[in-house]
Amino acid sequence: MAVPKKKTSKSKRDMRRSHDRVKMPNVTNCPKCHEPVLPHHVCTECGTYKGRSIIKTEES
Fold first, then answer.
1. Phi, psi at residue 18, to the nearest 5°?
2. How far is CA 6 from the centre of its chain?
3. Average confidence score pLDDT of the chain
4. Domain boundaries in the chain?
């Protein structure tokens, strides 16, 4: 059975875990209604994507 010969230091352990953090979503504003929206997604407020109306909403 493989057993570590030396104790892994806190520095080495934390360097290995440096990519395990939770990243914040990249949120932009809708150009039409200025609500926060994820990139490459249809705006849930006004229903537009790339300037075109995709989803019918109560506003339109």
1. -65, -25
2. 38
3. 90
4. 24-60
